[in-house]
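INFO worker-7 received task bundle
INFO bundle size: 2
INFO processing item 0
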Amino acid sequence: MTKNEEKNIAKCIHSVQLFDEVFVVDSGSSDNTAAIAEQLNALVVPFEWNGMYPKKKQWCLENLPFRNDWVLYVDADEEVRPELAEEMMRVFQAGPQAMGYFVGYDYVFMNKVLRRGHQVYKLVLFNRHHGKFLDYDDLGASNMWEVEGHYQPEIAGKAQLLQSKMLHFDHDSIFDYFSRHNRYSDWEATVRIKGLLDNPKESQPYIRVLQKKLFNKLPLKWLTAFLHSYVFKLGFLDGKEGFHFAFARAVYYWQVEIKISELKRRSARSPVSPGLAGKTPEVKAQ
């Protein structure tokens, strides 16, 4: 899924050349994203969000002309490492033992691959007939965007973890990194204040469910996030990049907390529920 990703798209597509079909779902890029993707034999599909549900990931499931039952979601700033592709081949040669698979990510920050500090897992490989991205009642979030937020799809069946990892390497600047996280924190503040962040239908590893429940009850989440990344997860061993990444995580949760306070103040002054001002009635796209 792309919009103005000419810095990233070529290496992303090169990393999935072994796969049977590659779709690039593009939201009106004004740069060379679509042209590069077409040159690399990807099928470019235009997408224009109507501001309602489904958002982009679910729209892909419902509208792309797949000839395969299984799909893998790869962001433009991500790469499928050869060992991950080989592991997927082995899974399908033996016959999948689950309906979905989590993949871990190695994160590049300040041009360094972080080995510690924070590990992200996403459920990105699944049988499209058994997976669905949930509606999170987040259309009223400030600076809302077209892609589903930081949550996993619902899988009808068992989900397992692959051992090999994806690489997350964004060639945009630090400015763009903080700009994105400013939008993400708007979204998270809205869903947190509504109590919607922990949807029991969302597929998650059991340990992750417990961690999220504990984290949600803690005060000073920004401080907890820093200590978790830099101390508990040994981020200090990644040098100055590990410190800056842990501090950036703290800043993100600090943003979420003060934005929640702002939403509560607005709610106290207005009879309209927080995060819902200006929201139009939900219409399910066909």
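INFO item 0 finished
INFO processing item 1
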Amino acid sequence: MPLTDKLGRRITDLRVSITDRCNYRCVYCRSGEEDVPFSELPIADYVRLVRVFVSLGIEKVRITGGEPLLRRELLPMIEQLSSMTTAGSGKPLDVAITTNGHLLAKLAQPLRDAGLSRVTVSMDAVDPAKFARITRVANGYEAVVAGIRAAKRVGLEPVKINAVIMRGFNEDQIADFARFSRDEGVIVRFIEFMPLEEGRVWAPDVVLGYNEMLDILNSYRSLVPLPPTTIGETAMRYTFDDGVGEVGIIAPVSRAFCGACSRVRLTSDGKIRTCLFSQSDHDLYGVLQRGGTDADLAAFIEATIQKKEARHHIGEPGFLKPSRSMVHIGG
């Protein structure tokens, strides 16, 4: 039987954070403190936990962080994951990664050789000065662009760029990102700012919503809608009137897509989160540490999936920000 929650949503996508360390200090994510404790499990333990998820019907695994390229054992992990097949269909597991791209230029070919399917790069400005202000890292822009081009060159496609947009901060980058999509042959997805930051600076008036982003893009060049590629796709996709380039808008605040959610997350310390905005974790790694068998792990996963929330409550009276920030949950 497929892994299905109490609302009948089939869970096919797993996001696995393998570290909450990061070499960037993005203003919408980190507080800016230099010495922050981090948590990581042995790579072999992540692989075992993923294998159990895959035995229950997970079809796609995305490796996240923090910054996953900081883990030295990443390549052997990808080799092991890419050799797995999805229960029932026997299809190869789809393995992707989300990275800030800073180390990608040197690792693109080894990642591809290890079996990685695709890469998504988190990048919030195409202006080098603004990029440095957002990331708090000097001279990072050139490294990230080199990484994007290397990923394309070795076939880690489609290369996607995720840009978190904040009002009064980087909305002036939207048209420039559209141009970047067309010039570089990558997909750019604009993401509404969510209340997941360490510094707790989120407020409704900082969110640049779907309609405003759409207006800016249309003022650059007329958009043409594209059909969704999967049932649970989070981005509303567009090309331009000449068919060159692709952009998308992910609008979890103004246009929630919870009804078709197919995701579950595993944090870097081995806890299941059934929603980004959960107020609690479910300690899967604790089962492993207590000597649990794969059957015990599978039973825990199946029971936890039945606790998956129907939706988030951003913007509603009484909404509480999640118990952990994004860097500790995993992107």
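INFO item 1 finished
INFO post-check item 1: The chain has a mean pLDDT of 89.
INFO post-check item 1: The chain has one domain: 13-329.
INFO worker-7 idle
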